[in-house]
Design goal:
Layout (H helix, E strand, L loop, with lengths): L2 E5 L3 H13 L3 E5 L2 H10 L6 E5 L7 H9 L9 E5 L4 H9 L4 E4 L4 H13 L30 H14 L5 E4 L6 H11 L7 E5 L5 H9 L16 H4 L4 E5 L6 H13 L1 E2 L8 E2 L3 E6 L3 H7 L4 H7 L2 E4 L7 H16 L7 E2 L1 H9 L5 H15 L4 E2 L17 H7 L3 H19 L4 H8 L3 H10 L4
Parallel strand pairs: 1-2, 1-3, 3-4, 4-5, 6-11, 6-12, 7-8, 8-11, 13-14
Antiparallel strand pairs: 9-10
Helix pairs in contact: 2-3, 4-6, 6-7, 13-15, 13-17, 17-18, 18-19
């Protein structure tokens, strides 16, 4: 039996969650504000097993409460489950960076709660916490920094992994197909870490000739080779104190792999043409679209280097496995494409269906390019099938996963699923402005409020 604390200002949701937890055999205390929760935690004679903490609270929000908890003796190792009615990349990554055990979207089912508590009870929670004073998480709408946008569960898992990884300096290996957003993920990781005020340097190992790669990474001294007219610091030195992304590391020649392995082990670089050792302090992130394990088997990649790079593996899913993200991403790219042209463009329903059915072999990058092209050339106020004619003949021949799932449901279940997806992505695009979301959905604000309550999205 666990001792739990539920913190939520929504009386109905809080009481329902407490009832579920008590039915599962646990002892539960409850609070309706962050200040009340901190008081309960500080004065309880019995330690808590877990805290369920709502993100949106009056006065002191959930992240502020979590920060305060992590600065206390009793809260440094307390498992905290963040709850939100609407998950964003910032609040998900922010919560995980501050050491949240998980980040769940309301409503939460009984089975999911039971499974989560079993994991918490059997897990050993790390006592390592990030430097909280060095971390800052603004709202999604106020941020112009790179973000991993999307509402799908697949992407939410990636956001959680990035949040957890951001609290350490361990090397991260990002894998995934071309165009899935590996560099964006690396930048998000850097921005969420304590190194965020330091340099972020990205180098594409596949774009640099093999004979120049060593100089690009480690630097050179004057006269090291023909044309070296002055000393030059390499990418490792340029990223000192910050994060270095080695993109397409699978394309690195074997001789360079050996030199990279030594630098990773010793954190010392030797500029080309010099014997001087230069210490570097970096967070290393590697990215590749290749199967490095298969390359090890074929002798094209060093096994010891793979071990050094693959400390925290994070795989970016292809867009075809993130169907719930396609339309939100498309509308985001469309808004960006026309923001300086004093023009409003919408995606017509047939165009939306085409985007969902298309295979997207180039993933998010291809979607962005397609929307920018259609947005620039569309003559009307909405993007039609004709404006996306260059995609014709390339769509999936089979129904999409979303369509197949809908046909397997009852009619009421399918309608509820579609409404939930459409409302969630409209809120994301509207930065959680409900009046704007209602306009995007073509319904009144009161109708939106009614549906939010019915679907328990509030």
């Amino acid at each position: 039996m666990a001792h739990l604390l539920v913190v939520d200002d929504d009386d109905g949701f809080r009481e329902g969650l407490v009832e579920t937890l008590v039915d599962l055999g646990h002892t539960v205390d409850e609070a309706s504000s962050g200040e009340q929760a901190l008081d309960i935690l500080a004065n309880s004679s019995v330690p808590f097993t877990c805290l369920f903490l709502d993100f949106r609270l009056p006065a002191m929000d959930g992240l502020a409460v979590l920060e305060a908890i992590r600065t206390t003796r009793y809260g440094q190792t307390l498992p905290v489950v963040m709850l939100t009615g609407f998950a964003s990349s910032d609040n998900t990554i922010g919560a995980m960076t501050l050491g949240a055990f998980d980040h769940l979207t309301k409503p939460v089912g009984r089975r999911a709660i039971q499974s989560l508590l079993e994991r918490i009870v059997t897990s050993t929670v790390s006592t390592d916490t990030p430097d909280i004073k060095s971390l800052s998480f603004g709202t999604e709408e106020a941020s112009a920094k790179p973000r991993l946008l999307g509402v799908s569960e697949t992407l939410r898992e990636v956001q959680k992994q990035i949040g957890r990884a951001a609290s350490s300096d361990a090397t991260v290996l990002l894998s995934g197909e071309t165009g899935t957003g590996k560099e964006v993920a690396a930048r998000v990781l850097h921005d969420a870490s304590k190194r965020r005020g330091k340099p972020f340097v990205a180098v594409n190992c596949a774009a640099i000739p093999a004979e120049l790669l060593e100089s690009e990474l480690f630097g050179h001294v004057r006269g090291a080779f023909t044309g070296a007219s002055a000393d030059r610091a390499g990418c490792f030195v340029a990223a000192d104190g910050g994060t270095l992304l080695l993109d397409e590391v699978g394309d690195m020649p074997l001789p360079m792999q050996a030199k990279l392995l030594r630098v990773i082990q010793e954190r010392l670089v030797t500029p080309l043409g010099s014997s001087r050792l230069v210490p570097v302090d970096i967070r290393l992130v590697a990215a590749t679209h290749r199967d490095l394990k298969a390359m090890v088997g074929s002798g094209d990649f060093r096994e010891d280097l793979l071990y050094r790079l693959n400390v925290i593996p994070i795989e970016l899913p292809p867009l075809r496995e993130r169907l719930a993200d396609i339309l939100p991403l498309a509308e985001h790219f469309l808004a960006d494409a026309v923001k300086n042209r004093k023009r409003v463009l919408r995606l017509s329903p047939p165009a939306q269906r085409l985007l969902l059915d298309y295979a997207w072999p180039g993933n998010v990058r291809e979607l962005k390019n397609a929307i920018e092209r259609a947005g620039a050339l569309a003559p009307g106020s909405s993007i039609t099938l004709e404006d996306l004619g260059f995609l014709n003949g390339k769509s999936n021949s089979a129904p999409s996963l979303l369509h197949r799932s809908l046909f397997e449901m009852s009619l009421p279940g399918a309608v509820e699923t579609l409404e939930r997806e459409m409302i969630s992505h409209a809120l994301m695009l509207a930065n959680n402005n409900r009046a704007d979301a209602a306009r995007r959905l073509g319904i009144s604000r009161q109708t939106l409020y009614t549906k939010l309550a019915a679907l328990k999205l509030e």
